[in-house]
Amino acid sequence: MLTKSGQKLEDIIKKAIEDHIIKNSEYEEIIEIAHADGMIDAHERVLLREFNDLIAEKIVKRVAG
Questions:
Q1: Taken in order 54, 63, 24, 30, is the CA torsion positive or negative?
Q2: Less packed terminus of the chain by CB within 10 Å, N or C?
Q3: % of the chain at pLDDT higher than 90
């Protein structure tokens, strides 16, 4: 089941992937959204893991801002 926070998280992550860049403030927003409802569900966990992998592999670049 896709939660409201999961959908919002997915949308923000998709935009960062399309842009190939994520500002630190946007990254923090992603983390806040994931924790907003008090738990990270399975869908959110997968999204965060895959997104962090993209950052680690430098497919998405994390920048100041």
A1: negative
A2: N
A3: 68
